[in-house]
Amino acid sequence: MNGCKLHISEASIADEILVVPTRALGPNEKEYAVAFAVQADHEGMTQVLKPHNARPREHFKRGFNGGYTDSYLLFENTFIPWDRVFLCGENDHGGLCAMLFALFHRHSYSGCKPALGDVLLGLAANAAELNGIEKTSHVREMFAELIKVSELGYAAGYTASDLGKPEINIPGMGKVPYGPGSYIPDSIYANVGRCLTGEAVFHEQEMLCNIAGGLPATLPCERDLTHPDLQPLLEKIPQAEPGRTCGRPDPVLAVFYRRNMPRRGRQHELRQLSRRRLSDHGADRHYLPV
Fold first, then answer.
1. Are 209 and 245 in contact (CB under 8 A)?
2. What sections of 73-136 are H helices per DSSP?
3. 14-60: per-residue pLDDT in tens?
4. Is pLDDT of 246 > 60?
5. Which end of the chain has the smaller Cβ count within 10 Å, N or C?
């Protein structure tokens, strides 16, 4: 095997690397119709890593310090044992392999993104309170938009699971049986859930920025916030929320968790914050996915 696979998230911590085609393949592309599995330290395969680690903190500790990686996988005359080869020249199945991988990945969005939407909602509610705008109509509309995207995405994912069958939806042919009997998510609902939550993620970040304003972007670094000469001065700067000052940034730092901290570890705490904040605002959050 010779070639490469690019943009492979978390390959560095995987035990096995599963390689499949990325698109439909024609009769003249049989040499690219390959699918196989190898161990992550397989001879002849090189990983070029790009780590993404959160900056360590000294005073405002996270739940844990983590990160993630992306890899380029390079294959150079790599021998693949035959019992680990699943596709070898059968180009008719290349597109199906790619579609099944994409389908399960898109289906997972409808579980992942609603949970992160809960976290984002808690951060937005927190930031609105800090700025004293949590009761304004345009901010409440943003809260409603965040709830809508999360709940519709969750509903689409749930429906895709409920309607799953051991069959796939092939354009022009409809649903046909496929595989050894494993249930496959319904492709229509898996795709619309992914489309909705995937396209909305940028707008959700924009709404958080609009609500938070300039405070998170210009907040002094933690060494200044804890400096014995500067902290008393910063604590004199009031925030809209009673009892909060720029010198006591614990709720402000929550806005940074979205970008500077792994989602796991503190996610449960932030989701509880989301429910508490929205309950205080009169919004019923009992229907959010847990």
1. no
2. 94-131
3. 999 999 999 999 999 999 999 999 999 999 999 999 988 777 777 77
4. no
5. C
pLDDT at 140 over 50: yes
171 token code pair: 């354009």
Cβ 278 vs Cβ 135: under 8 Å: no
Q: How many residues does the chain have?
A: 290
d(CA 259, CA 123): 12
Q: In what order do the strands lie in the sheet with 85-88?
A: 16-19, 34-39, 85-88
Nearest to 182 by CA among 100, 110, 106: 100
What one-character-per-residue DSSP string does 48-77 give? Answer: EEEEEEPPP-SSS--S---EEEEEEEEESS
pTM across the whole model: 0.75
Beta carbons of 98 and 23 less than 8 angstroms apart: yes
Block residue for tokens 């599995």: 37
Q: What angle do CA 33, 35, 39 make, to 5 degrees?
A: 150
Helices (H) and strands (E) in the chain, counts: 8, 8
Nearest-CA neighbor of 100 among 160, 14, 168, 176?
168
Q: What is the pLDDT of residue 174?
A: 85
Angle between helices 187-212 and 94-131 (to 10 degrees): 30
Domains of the chain: 3-89 (2.40.110.10), 96-280 (1.20.140.10)
Question: Distance between CA 197 and CA 51 in Å, rounded?
Answer: 26
Tokens of 136: 């304004």
